[in-house]
Structure formats: structure tokens, C-alpha cells
């Protein structure tokens, strides 16, 4: 199955019973999917005990006008590395456009711009990322571990983290109350 690239710009949703507690009710904003692997940022849950202001102060950045927003659990890979998913109205050093839906920036200039009130109008800060080696995610998709829906600004920026999983499934026509963690045979 050569599906390389089809997940970029999609929202990847963990199916119940995925088997990895790190991804229970996970919502991943997919930023890259190619022959070398895939990368996405988790946007379905917050990091406990640390906020944007805490992170900025640790990085010697004055929080300025930035709201003290929660940080998201971006994924289990490099959990001390920061990422900002943001609207396309701001472009900085190393920003990557994701299918015209959002941008991904991992440099400090985006945090400084947010602190100064000059950053993107909509953004989510996260620590870590979800990554897959070549073909790994395709195999997990074939095993029904994940469901994907088209990415949208409304799902990404217009929903609270705790509501994104069910809202994203609903956007794909699925009522999460009908999902089961076990499978059967017909």
C-alpha cells in the first residue's frame, strides 16, 4: 500500500483499545507523512503542572502579553522539545506550512512573537511529538489502530483539548458512544 503523504494535514484519532496508553483518546495533527516516516503533534491532552508562562520563563523569555495557556502533550518523542501549531497569518524562521491548514514552528522566535503580541492569531503550544518510521503508521492504520479525518482550523483551534477527540470523530460521521475497544468477527 503506497499511501505516502495522504495523512499530511489530517487529524489522526486513536481508536479505543489501541493498546498503548500513551495514545488513549489521542488526537494528532499530522504535519508530515512521506516515504521516510510520519510526524504529528498531539493536541488532545494537556501537560500536567506546566503552562506557557512557566516554559517561557525557563527559556528566559518574558511572557509579556501571552496568555498563560496550557501546554499540550505533543507526543512521546523528545518530550522536552517544544512545538507551536499556528495559523498561517504568521511565518517565522523554520515554519513549515501544512497543506495551507496550519503551520508548525519549533524555533523560539514564535514564542517571542506571541509574548510581544506580534505572533499568530491562533496557536497551540506542545511538548514532544508523535513520530513513526517508514511504513510504521501505514501498518497501524491497516490494523485499525487509527482513524483519520480532514484537518481543519475549527477542530484544531476552535475546540478545547478534552473535546477534540469526540468532535473530530463526529466530523467524520462517527458517534464515539458507539465505538468499542474490542473487535468481533462477522
Automatic annotation (TrEMBL):
Lineage: superkingdom: Bacteria
Short name of one Pfam family: DUF179
Matching InterPro entries: AlgH-like
Family (UniProt): Belongs to the UPF0301 (AlgH) family.
HAMAP family membership: UPF0301
Protein name as it appears in the record: UPF0301 protein PBT88_14635
Organism: Sphingomonas abietis
Amino acid at each position: 500500500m503506497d499511501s505516502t503523504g495522504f495523512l499530511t494535514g489530517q487529524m489522526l484519532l486513536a481508536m479505543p483499545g489501541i493498546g498503548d496508553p500513551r495514545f488513549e483518546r489521542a488526537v494528532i495533527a499530522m504535519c508530515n507523512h512521506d516515504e521516510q516516516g510520519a510526524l504529528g503533534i498531539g493536541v488532545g491532552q494537556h501537560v500536567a503542572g506546566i503552562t506557557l508562562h512557566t516554559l517561557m520563563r525557563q527559556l528566559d523569555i518574558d511572557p509579556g502579553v501571552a496568555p498563560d495557556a496550557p501546554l499540550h502533550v505533543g507526543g512521546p518523542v523528545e518530550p522536552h522539545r517544544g512545538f507551536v501549531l499556528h495559523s498561517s497569518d504568521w511565518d517565522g524562521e523554520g515554519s513549515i506550512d501544512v497543506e495551507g491548514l496550519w503551520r508548525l514552528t519549533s524555533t523560539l522566535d514564535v514564542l517571542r512573537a506571541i509574548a510581544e503580541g506580534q505572533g499568530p492569531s491562533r496557536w497551540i503550544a506542545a511538548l514532544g511529538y508523535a513520530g513513526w518510521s517508514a511504513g510504521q503508521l501505514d501498518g497501524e492504520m491497516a490494523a485499525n489502530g487509527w482513524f483519520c479525518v480532514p484537518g481543519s482550523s475549527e477542530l484544531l483551534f476552535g475546540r478545547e483539548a478534552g473535546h477534540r477527540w469526540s468532535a473530530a470523530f463526529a466530523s467524520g460521521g462517527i458517534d464515539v458512544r458507539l465505538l468499542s475497544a474490542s473487535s468481533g468477527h462477522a
